[in-house]
User: Fold Restriction endonuclease from Mycolicibacterium rufum.
Amino acid sequence: MMWTRWRVAVALGVCAGACAALLGVAGWWCLLIAAATPLLPRFVAALVVGAATPGARESAARDQMSGTEFEDHVARIARSAGVPVIMTPLSGDWGVDLIVGHRPHRLAVQCKRQSRPVGTSAVQEVVAGAPMQDCTRTMVVTNHGFTPAARKLAELHGCTLVDGAELPRLRSTIRRLTQPIEPTST
Assistant:
């Protein structure tokens, strides 16, 4: 497979150099284009991965936030995904911090900014509070991680867990979860 990939890359480089020559580009530029073209896919892939990876200052800033600032941060990410966000009051929210999306596919989100792994209570709260807030899906977001018991409980109830390592992909996760549920044919 490795040889096949290199053959394709070399063929692509030769074609790019030939096209440049046909367009009247100087000969040494054609050689440079032919040599650089096979490297382009790896460069673009590394560029995308690098752009999606939070920098040291971004991670440090997230870890310095208070609980309400972390909720605001998650709400901004959800709004940037193009869905409406309702921030619930600090008390009487039944364990739901954010309500994301349109009815009937609303997502109940519990935000936990902690210095230790999040336990089962966060999952229990959001799963119990979701019907009270007219939500069909649930999610717990944290800057840290989850205990094994919390992961097992979330799996049992279909609750999505987003930990600190997955926060850069939170926007795409929210988009996926706020899409209408497709009926399954049996």
User: Anything to note?
Assistant: The first strand starts at residue 85 and ends at 87. The chain has a mean pLDDT of 84.
